[in-house]
Amino acid sequence: MVSHGDPQGGDDTTYKVTVRNVTGHTTVGRNNRVVGNIGTTTEAASEVTEVQLEALRREFAGVRELIENLDGVGEREKGAAVDRLEELEAAVTDDEPDVRTMGRVRAWFAEKLPDMLDTVTGLLLHPTIALLATAAGDEVAAGFGGLLESFGASSTSGEG
């Protein structure tokens, strides 16, 4: 409950507001001007900026460097892992992200280089990837959500 009086302006109008189970913005007072939209469209909510894409590319570069510096892994295996990582990056950043490829690459790491599985899974949990999947439409977003669920994650944590 909010109560407000305005003795400075000489107006002693009192506002009483009781709010129950309401989400969103509330404006109380006189001469208020509210500008904005009610809700957002999927398109607006899922726009991906160049800054976000660059941050994602840096994450991939960091994982690539980790792979190249792995101890106890042969050069051939490192090369194959980097190839899979590049495949994953392309699958994620294409105009229409390829969820099947994302799952296949993750499965490859689980089988061939399990020490890097958590790192690769972490890439798939990057909020920008969720935004890219959402921007590609309902079918891709649903597929991406299913992929995340398949390894115990949730697609509801997208940040903008």
Note down, in words, how this protein is organized.
There is one protein chain. By secondary structure, this protein is mainly alpha-helical. The chain has a domain at 44-150. Helices cover 54% and strands 8% of the residues. The chain is built from 7 helices and 2 strands, in the order ββααααααα. The protein has helices at 42-45, 50-68, 75-93, 99-112, 117-124, 127-135, 138-150, and strands at 2-6, 11-17. A two-stranded antiparallel ribbon has the order 1-2. A hairpin with a 4-residue loop joins β1 and β2. α3 packs antiparallel against α4, α4 packs antiparallel against α5 (117-124) and α6 (127-135) packs antiparallel against α7 (138-150). The longest helix has 19 residues, at 50-68. It starts with a strand and ends in a 10-residue tail after the last helix.
Please state the average pLDDT score.
80
Unreliable residue stretches: 1-6, 35-44
Rg over alpha carbons: 24 Å
**Distance separating the two termini:** 32 Å
Total beta-strand segments: 2
- What structural category arises from helix and sheet content? mainly alpha
**Helix and strand succession?**
EEHHHHHHH
Number of helices: 7
Q: Which percent bin holds the helix content?
A: 40-55%
Content of β-strand: 5-15%
Physical arrangement of strands within the biggest beta sheet: 1-2
The outline comes out as: elongated
Largest sheet: 2 strands, antiparallel
Write the layout of secondary structure elements.
Layout: E1 2-6, E2 11-17, H1 42-45, H2 50-68, H3 75-93, H4 99-112, H5 117-124, H6 127-135, H7 138-150
Antiparallel strand pairs: 1-2
Helix pairs in contact: 2-3, 3-4, 4-5, 4-7, 6-7
